[in-house]
């Protein structure tokens, strides 16, 4: 067993939970190394294409169609493809809740406890740019990290909020087709992955989080539309944080019903509540997780008209219109909003009283109005495909100028390359990284300073 000091109280409880044979297998799993995973961004590239183009040695996660294991000795966060938003580094079991929540384009989706964004990025990719994703985290600093990951993935139909669930409910009661509640928990399933979780567990155990979870799920149910689906998940083993929470929902909300999750090889049924799904590190190649899917009875999702109502086309500033003419992807001007010189492209669905919440982002930030010019954003670059911008320059990943660009340095063109003037979308192997502005043989770097290669 690894040098992880776990209390006898926890070990005794796990023995009672698993039975002697499974308990011994669970203890033996600590002798094995943790597993490393990445999830491919299907908004930008297919898993099959990514496997062919990457130098990483990957093995598929059997139950995740776009999930892969990679060798822990490799450094995938130091790869230009990571900066192009082609994949997210995520523990394999943690990929499961968002993967199993059946999102379809056009859904209105809430990720209630979303930071740092591992599950939100998958939910957003499933929407394919249609509908709405509201990603919330109560911590403002964590919500900022969440926003960066969503923008890196090129997801434009987002609202990022930092609110208490009760406050969120004042705007979104009965609004969402799909909700993911990846609840704060005691983290028992992550002890092998992160030994620091043991110390946190000793400070706040299952009973502490149980009270928080009960409050959160009550507000989440109230935000679910009739016919909607809610996925509840944790990375812990305790019944009081898992099956007991689901029982509480079913007892307090008679309009909610449990939807049986399909088991796959290595997955286990709920303990005392069939239809849930449990992942144990001694049964699968991943850490511990719990999931339960619930449906609100009555109605069918996606039937109510909830669009913004901004139907009238508007006249835009000349500088902005000139820049947008470089983009071939159609933009509806009625959804463009300018606030404090920042330009936003609002989501298709947005409640009229949405401004009462604390938003970090409403829709896609297109850029900023400067004196007699428009400066496009990093988020806009990430949301585009190379063929959607008029002037592009794509480097092969091995070209040293890729790293120079990501470090914020000036990019110089070779004698063999065509001269570039004006805005240019810089790409790596055809995948956008950000903007630059050419004056002939040099490109002034516009890569966002906060995202630069360190």
Fraction of helical residues? 25-40%
Beta-strand percent range: 25-35%
Number of structural domains: 2
Low-confidence runs of at least 5 consecutive residues: 303-310
- Overall, the morphology is globular
Report mean pLDDT, rounded to a whole number.
94
β-strand number: 23
CATH architecture term of the largest domain: 3-Layer(aba) Sandwich
What characterizes the major β-sheet?
A: 10 strands, mixed
CATH uppermost class of the largest domain: Alpha Beta
* Structural class determined from secondary elements: alpha+beta
Q: CATH superfamily of the largest domain, called what?
A: Vaccinia Virus protein VP39
CATH-defined fold name of the largest domain: Rossmann fold
Q: Helix count, per DSSP?
A: 14
Distance between the termini: 36 Å
Please give the radius of gyration in angstroms.
23 Å
Domain SAM-dependent MTase RsmB/NOP-type: 10-297
InterPro entries: Methyltr_RsmF_N (IPR031341), MeTrfase_RsmB-F_NOP2_cat (IPR049560), MeTrfase_RsmB-F_NOP2_dom (IPR001678), Nol1_Nop2_Fmu_2 (IPR027391), RCMT (IPR023267), RsmB/NOL1/NOP2-like_CS (IPR018314), RsmF_methylt_CI (IPR031340), SAM-dependent_MTases_sf (IPR029063)
Protein name: NOL1/NOP2/sun family putative RNA methylase
Organism: Lacrimispora xylanisolvens
């Amino acid at each position: 067993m690894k040098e992880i000091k776990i209390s006898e109280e926890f070990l005794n409880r796990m023995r009672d939970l698993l039975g002697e044979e499974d308990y011994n297998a669970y203890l033996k799993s600590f002798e094995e190394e943790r597993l490393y995973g990445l999830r491919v961004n299907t908004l930008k590239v297919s898993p099959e294409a990514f496997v062919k183009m990457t130098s990483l040695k990957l093995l598929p996660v059997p139950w995740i169609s776009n999930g892969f294991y990679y060798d822990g000795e490799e450094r995938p966060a130091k790869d230009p493809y990571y900066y192009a938003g082609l994949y997210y580094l995520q523990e394999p079991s943690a990929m499961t809740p968002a993967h199993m929540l059946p999102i379809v384009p056009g859904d209105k989706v809430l990720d209630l406890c979303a930071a740092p964004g591992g599950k939100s990025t998958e939910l957003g990719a499933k929407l394919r740019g249609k509908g709405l994703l509201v990603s919330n985290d109560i911590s403002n600093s964590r919500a900022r990290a969440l926003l960066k990951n969503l923008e890196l993935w090129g997801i434009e139909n987002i609202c990022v909020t930092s609110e208490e669930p009760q406050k969120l409910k004042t705007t979104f009661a009965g609004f969402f087709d799909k909700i993911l509640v990846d609840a704060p928990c005691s983290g028992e399933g992550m002890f092998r992955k992160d030994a620091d979780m043991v110390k946190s567990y000793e400070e706040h155990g299952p009973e502490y989080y149980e009270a928080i979870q009960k409050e959160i799920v009550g507000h989440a149910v109230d935000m679910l539309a009739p016919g909607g689906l809610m996925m509840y998940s944790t990375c812990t083993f305790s019944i009081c944080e898992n099956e007991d929470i689901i029982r509480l929902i079913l007892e307090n909300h008679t309009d909610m019903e449990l939807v049986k999750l399909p088991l796959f090889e290595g997955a286990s049924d709920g303990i005392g509540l069939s239809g849930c799904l449990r992942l144990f590190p001694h049964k699968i190649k991943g850490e511990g997780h719990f999931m339960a899917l619930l449906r609100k009875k009555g109605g069918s999702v996606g039937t109510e008209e909830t669009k913004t109502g901004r139907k009238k086309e508007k006249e835009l500033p000349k500088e902005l219109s000139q820049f947008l003419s470089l983009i071939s992807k159609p933009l509806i001007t009625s959804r463009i909003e300018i606030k404090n010189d920042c330009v936003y492209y609002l989501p298709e669905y947005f409640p009229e009283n949405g401004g009462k919440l604390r938003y970090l982002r409403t829709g896609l930030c297109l850029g900023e109005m400067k004196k007699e010019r428009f400066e496009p954003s990093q988020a806009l670059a990430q949301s585009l495909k190379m063929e959607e911008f008029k002037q592009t320059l794509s480097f092969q990943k091995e070209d040293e100028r890729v790293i120079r660009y990501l470090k914020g340095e000036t990019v110089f063109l070779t004698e063999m390359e065509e001269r570039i003037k004006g805005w240019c979308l810089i790409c790596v192997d055809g995948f956008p990284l950000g903007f630059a502005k050419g004056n002939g043989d040099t490109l002034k770097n516009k890569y966002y300073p906060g995202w630069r290669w360190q």
